[in-house]
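Summary of Year 1 activities. Much of the first year was spent building the evaluation harness for sequence design. The harness presents a backbone, in tokenized form, and records the residue chosen at every position. We chose the following record to illustrate the format because it has been used consistently in internal testing since the harness was completed.
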């Protein structure tokens, strides 16, 4: 069941246009720690227990809002033409739900990460290096024209479940979007490696609980806090370009594409509505308080 949290986020962020911003970050590392590090039995039991608690919280607190957000996106799209500002508002709401989740899992992350041995920390560092090498091969190897074509193809692939096969004019919109981006993949990878290095340095303080918690929380809750001003401006520019692209694609969607899009949004919203749990009831005395 550990796939549920990132899967839910993927659906909401994709519907709002920004699944792509999070697709290669390590912020959900606590739930995927066993993909990076060989856990012992006690650690696996701890992971399972923490995940069960977090899924229960997620069910009570977030699945309902996710469904509501998707229904609002669908309603705006059904009205006809949608503006980039409307999509941006939905994206902002999705990002706020993401931050709520990261705040909620911080205690779980602390419990899991502070249990790592020195050998496991070294294993985590090696896993980071291996994944970074793979990312460089995937995103940096090739001529500028080849890299641009791969970027366009990745975007098409991400959009296909929602819109189906794109029209030639829609592909041209994606090509124009790719040309307008100002953030290089090399810069993105450098920031990713910086985050990983900060996490590894923080793990070096895990035997000092107060220091460890103080350093870990901002890494998970505000991973962008240390971005240089130039990098932050480029990210904002690229976000604006991506939202504008999505508005253009949605407004140019064929009847068949719109039917597929609404079907996909409705399917996810229904899943969230069916899985959402009622909020835990307050004790009678607390409920009676003014």
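For this record, the design step produced the sequence shown next.
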């Amino acid at each position: 069941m550990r796939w549920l949290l990132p899967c839910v986020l993927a659906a909401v962020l994709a519907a709002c246009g920004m699944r792509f911003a999070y697709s290669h970050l390590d912020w959900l590392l606590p739930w995927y720690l066993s993909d990076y590090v060989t856990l012992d039995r006690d650690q696996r039991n701890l992971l399972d227990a923490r995940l069960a608690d977090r899924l229960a919280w997620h069910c009570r607190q977030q699945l309902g809002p996710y469904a509501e957000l998707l229904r609002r996106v669908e309603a705006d799209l059904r009205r006809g033409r949608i503006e980039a500002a409307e999509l941006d508002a939905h994206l902002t709401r999705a990002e706020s739900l993401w931050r709520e989740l990261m705040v909620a899992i911080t205690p779980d992350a602390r419990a899991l990460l502070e249990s790592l041995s020195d050998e496991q920390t070294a294993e985590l560092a090696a896993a980071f290096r291996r994944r970074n090498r793979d990312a460089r091969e995937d995103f940096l190897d090739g001529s500028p024209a080849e890299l641009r074509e791969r970027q366009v193809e990745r975007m098409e692939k991400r959009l296909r479940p929602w819109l189906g096969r794109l029209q030639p004019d829609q592909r041209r919109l994606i090509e124009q979007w790719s040309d307008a981006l100002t953030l290089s993949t090399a810069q993105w990878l450098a920031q990713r490696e910086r985050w990983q290095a900060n996490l590894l340095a923080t793990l070096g303080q895990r035997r000092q609980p107060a220091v460890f918690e103080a350093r870990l929380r901002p890494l998970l809750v505000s991973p962008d806090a240390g971005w240089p001003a130039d990098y932050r401006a480029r990210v904002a520019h690229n976000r604006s370009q991506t939202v504008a692209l999505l508005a253009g694609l949605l407004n140019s969607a064929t009847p068949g594409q719109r039917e597929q899009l609404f079907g996909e949004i409705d399917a996810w919203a229904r899943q969230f509505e069916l899985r959402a749990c009622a909020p835990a009831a307050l004790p009678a005395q607390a409920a009676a308080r003014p």
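The chain has 13 helices and no strands. Quantitative recovery figures across the full test set are reported in Table 2.
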